[in-house]
Amino acid sequence: MQIVKIDKNSDISNLVDTLLQRTPNYYDDYIKQVQNIINDVKERKDEALIDFTQRFDQVKLSKNEIKVTEEEIKEAYDKVDSDLLDIVRKAKVKIETYHMKQKQYSWFDSEEKGILLGQKISAVSWAGVYVPGGKAVYPSSVLMNVIPAVVAGVENIVMTTPPGKDGKVNPLTLVVANECGLKDIYKVGGAQAIAALAYGTETIPKVDKIVGPGNIYVALAKKAVYGHVNIDSIAGPSEILILADETANPRYIAADLLSQAEHDELASSILVTDSEEVANKVVEEINALKNELSRKEILEKSLANYGYILLVDSIDEGVKVSNEIAPEHLEIITKEPFMVMTKIKNAGAIFLGEYSPEPLGDYMAGPNHVLPTNGTAKFFSPLGVDDFIKKSSIISYSREALYELHEDIIKFADSEQLTAHAKSIKVRFEDDK
Amino acid sequence: MQIVKIDKNSDISNLVDTLLQRTPNYYDDYIKQVQNIINDVKERKDEALIDFTQRFDQVKLSKNEIKVTEEEIKEAYDKVDSDLLDIVRKAKVKIETYHMKQKQYSWFDSEEKGILLGQKISAVSWAGVYVPGGKAVYPSSVLMNVIPAVVAGVENIVMTTPPGKDGKVNPLTLVVANECGLKDIYKVGGAQAIAALAYGTETIPKVDKIVGPGNIYVALAKKAVYGHVNIDSIAGPSEILILADETANPRYIAADLLSQAEHDELASSILVTDSEEVANKVVEEINALKNELSRKEILEKSLANYGYILLVDSIDEGVKVSNEIAPEHLEIITKEPFMVMTKIKNAGAIFLGEYSPEPLGDYMAGPNHVLPTNGTAKFFSPLGVDDFIKKSSIISYSREALYELHEDIIKFADSEQLTAHAKSIKVRFEDDK
Q1: Helices B315-325 and B13-20: angle between axes, nearest 10 degrees
Q2: B416 among annotated binding-site residues
Q3: Is the CB of residue A394 less than 8 Å from the CB of residue A118?
Q4: What residue of B is the nearest CA neighbor of A173?
Q5: HSE-CB for B311 with a 13 A CA cutoff
Q6: Which of A270, A390, B18, B359 is 20 to 30 A distant from A384 in Cα terms?
Q7: What is the DSSP letter of B262?
């Protein structure tokens, strides 16, 4: 963890570039392989899924084993800690409550001469949630990806996840999915799962929107099918930026930086402060705390590569740095955090005050933990109900209202050399003359 | 124009597939070329832009000619029909008025024990609008792409468009851009323009969001840079579907179908009706009207390839067909169009009643004419203010409120083997014990 002084004239673009390079924007070697998998699934459907699952997951499924059975879901409940299940249910309620507030409503506006304009909101009909396999299971991630779709009113939500070597899906994943009301869960992972969701197979239905995190194959497959279906954003490595003044508790800051760093070696933890004392104490606290934690090797690597303490002249300068980095998670631990927040332009989630640590948001607070990473908070938003709806414009004009505009539209269309467009207006008033 | 009978048991998936095939989802031959252009612009910046503009547009620009000058904008006003300019200004007001109603607002909700959750809305800082060159100039397209960004509050909006052979930008494009308040317009087109907007050059700034239509190079370049910046949806060939019963005027329907067909040979015009009489009369009217129009060859090709009259048993059956096709433009010309509209799930824009022809929406009504094409209305929305904003979650907890959840969060984090996440909560209450 290095302390770097930043002043008004410092160019932080090198730092920003270093962070951005954690996600190369494309990977030539993988793209071809991913495209081949997609093409094969498009063509051979379930047969291709069976072959890829054998090759990549070392599990030989028959056609009727692709879908998880009701029996398997029931069995999964026996394997899950009931205290944890209670907490999952509590979290579910909090996440639902927050997402209900994100709902948008259809609207219209009208004018007396007979003009009605508006916007109709409707949910997508089909959503597919991808859940990664591997050793780590993240029940919180299942909740965060499924609940916004449920709240949006998506009629059909399906899930795909790679099976373990025993041919089973992790029981906790099944239980959490079932708690959210999902019945259609498929034992397929990787690019082949994304292809199946995008194009459909005999067993897996084609969906309109695919969400969920995954490895590089999954990310590239999502990008490849984007446009044919919709996807959430493409997830990159995670980061936290903590903006702190001299009132902040260095031990809390240290713990929060470490909580980000434990995710993986590409995770980035950044403290931006105007207090040299806080900066120095945070370094001490990190050294003390990290010995008490289990993922020491990952912690040390990510802090060494992408951990920074930036010493700025003022919190206002710190805000500028933060807006430039556009962190996924931003903690503001200062005297007046809400006043600082007014100046924040780019951040996935903003945690205010010393009792709002980032892990609160990961699990229980309610807002989504699927957030724009690696600078994409400049243009992407947290996953939410918006991701599962789409809008239709509504236009209704009376004869009188159209008449008032008809000459303008005809002239406009003629200027674009679209005479049939002009004609569509003319025929409606040709009997007038 | 063929009349096809459809009943409850008909499978329209062949028709849907035919329409979808108008846009192959990827084009192997072009992708490499586009990626090479992007890489070259990333590396050589303005120099690469100058080379590509010479190669593709046959115009040799010097570095300081890439940006359109104030002088050129002034001169453009002399070349534009002042009546047309008045209409453009009228359209601009109507488009602004509609888009103002799309604005979303930041919100929060709070609980007395010290919990504040919310969502902060902010505009992207930089937007780039691409305007195609070529013979046809579409001032309406400039309005529709720029105004939502202006209404969203985007601080910096820039435009790129290829120069004509004389090295100038079309005067109407310049005038309309200037009317919208744009000052930074660059004479660059194609994939190189998209690369410049995505990565920045000495002259063209890097933006957060790129919008605007373009040819296959532009579309593939937008897809390639997606994730590094945000883009609008990827535009495909245009279509209209008209849902009409026996009350509809066949001449109006014919004119509206033709107005869609004149766009290009890939455009699709579809009538869905439960009235055989209307179906037959529409065929007659099309034959009569098309001789009065200028783009006869395009009209005939697009009607022959992608024009359909589908005869259904009832309007309800017609709604099902329409939802499956998910048309860009949907006209409902029936007895009770608003009641039919309640059943529509997928459509870019819905035009109700016989005095709401599609060209009204193209120019003057107010809603955006950049709409999801070719079935993507199942998951994409019209271009709008939403495209230029992003959201940040807001989370603030008091000590008391966090205390209430702290044991749950610790257990949840431990279940995911994230001990540093648990520690971040523990350190805040370690003095209690």
Answers
A1: 40
A2: yes
A3: yes
A4: B416
A5: 14
A6: A270
A7: T
Instruction: Please give the structure tokens belonging to residue A60.
Output: 């030989």
ipTM of the complex: 0.94
Residue in A185, A182, A211, A187 with CA at minimum distance from that of residue A198: A211
CB spacing of A412 vs B87 below 8 angstroms: yes
Which of these is catalytic: A239, A285, A329, A358?
A329
Q: Which of B99, B239, B329, B369 is catalytic?
A: B329
CATH match for A28-231 among 3.30.420.40, 3.40.50.2000, 3.40.50.1980, 1.10.10.10: 3.40.50.1980
Per-residue pLDDT of chain A (433 residues; tens, 9 = 90+): 778 887 777 777 777 777 777 765 556 678 889 999 999 999 999 999 999 999 999 999 999 999 999 999 999 999 999 999 999 999 999 999 999 999 999 999 999 999 999 999 999 999 999 999 876 678 899 999 999 999 999 999 999 999 999 999 999 999 999 999 999 999 999 999 999 999 999 999 999 999 999 888 999 999 899 989 999 987 778 899 999 999 999 999 999 999 999 988 889 999 999 999 999 999 999 999 988 888 888 999 999 989 999 999 999 999 999 999 999 999 999 999 999 999 999 999 999 999 999 999 999 999 999 999 989 999 999 999 999 999 999 999 999 999 999 999 999 999 888 999 999 999 999 987 6
| Catalytic-role residue among A239, A285, A317, A328 | A328
Catalytic residue among B317, B328, B331, B354, which? B328
Compute the distance between CA of residue A169 and CA of residue A160 in angstroms, rounded to an integer. 10
On chain B, the residues whose CB falls within 8 A of the CB of A366 are 117
- Residue B209 tokens read as 């969001």
- Which of A421, A428, A430, A432 is most worth mutating to test chain B (most B CB atoms within 10 A of its CB)? A421
The residue of chain B with its CA nearest to that of A408 is B87
Clarify whether A329 is annotated catalytic: yes
List the single residue in B98, B362, B424 with the smallest CB-CB distance to A256. B424
Distances (CA, A) of A303 to A235, A236, A239, A262, B341: 20, 17, 11, 9, 56
Domain B28-74+119-231 sits in CATH 3.40.50.720: no
Sort out which chain A residues have CB atoms less than 8 A from B293's CB and list them.
Answer: 419-420, 423
Chain B: nearest CA to A277, how far in angstroms?
A: 20
Contact A160, A221 (CB under 8 A): no
DSSP B115-179: EEEEEEEEE-SEEEEE---SS---HHHHHHHHHHHHHHT-SEEEEE----TTS---HHHHHHHHH
Q: Do B109 and A101 touch (CB under 8 A)?
A: yes
Closest chain B residue to the Cα of A428, Cα to Cα? B252
Let me know: does B278 contact B252? Beta carbons within 8 Å. no
Residues of B in contact with A376 (CB under 8 A): 227, 230
Verify whether the Cβ–Cβ distance A101 to B124 is below 8 Å: no
- Sequential DSSP letters for A45-109: THHHHHHHHHHHH-----GGGSBPPHHHHHHHHHTS-HHHHHHHHHHHHHHHHHHHTT----EEE
Residue of chain B whose Cα is closest to the Cα of A87:
B408
10 Å CB burial of residue A17 (0-12, 13-18, 19+) is: exposed
Candidates 3.90.45.10, 3.40.50.10240, 3.40.50.1980, 3.40.50.10700; CATH matching B2-23+236-366:
3.40.50.1980
Q: What is the dihedral of CA B233, B234, B239, B243, to 10 degrees?
A: -30
Bridge-based pairing of strands A230-231 and B230-231 is: unpaired
Closest CA to B140 of B71, B211, B58, B84: B84
Nearest to B380 among A390, A411, A419 (CB): A390
Q: Is A328 a catalytic residue?
A: yes
Q: Does B260 belong to an annotated binding site?
A: yes
| A242/A253 Cα distance (integer angstroms) | 7
